[in-house]
Amino acid sequence: EAMCDRLRSEAILFYGNVPEECKGNIMRVKRYNCTIIDLQDLSVIASVSGRNITAELGSRTLSKAISQHPCVLKNGVVLHSDRGSQYTSKEFTDYCSAHNVTQSMSCAGCPYDNAPMERYFNTLKSELIYVLLWYNSVRPHSFNNGLTPWQKRLT
């Protein structure tokens, strides 16, 4: 039982064989996602997840965006975000300054200009739930001899 509790609190994914005493338990860990989208075409430029919502998570996401799309920085770029502490921290503002990124934030109580991100996360959550349900209940797996994961679990 203690091992199952430890797995539930420390692992989002468990690689390898699940200990027998933990089978049937759902392992849940809260994850935070930081995503950058391009408002010109609403494409996802970078997305990084982590266990904590920190300036480091924001910096890693921005670093990924910069490394995958270096031409964006030629003329500088404006990064709009909410007023979360991860984006207002000295660590993150210094990172932005060092990479020619101008920060933009909504006025307190005016969330409308962050609506594209809110819409993105709403869609992401809705579609993720759909995919997980489809994957577990509809899609057969050769590993399970043609059964879905839920059908295999019941056998």
Task: Give a topology summary.
Blueprint: H1 2-10, E1 32-38, E2 43-50, H2 55-68, E3 77-81, H3 85-88, H4 90-98, E4 101-105, H5 115-137, H6 149-154
Parallel strand pairs: 3-4
Antiparallel strand pairs: 1-2
Distinctive features:
155 residues, 6 helices, two-stranded parallel ribbon, two-stranded antiparallel sheet, alpha+beta, elongated
Structural account:
- There is one protein chain.
- The protein has 155 residues and is an alpha+beta fold.
- The protein has six helices and four strands.
- The protein has helices at 2-10, 55-68, 85-88, 90-98, 115-137, 149-154, and strands at 32-38, 43-50, 77-81, 101-105.
- A two-stranded antiparallel sheet has the order 1-2. Strands 3-4 form a two-stranded parallel sheet.
- Helix 2 (55-68) packs parallel to helix 4.
- The radius of gyration is 20 Å and the shape is elongated.
- The two termini are 23 Å apart.
Can you give me a brief rundown of this structure?
By secondary structure, the protein is an alpha+beta fold.
- Runs in which pLDDT lies below 50 for 5 or more consecutive residues are 1-18
How many helical elements? 6
Strand tally, please?
A: 4
Which word captures the global form? elongated
Helical content band = 40-55%
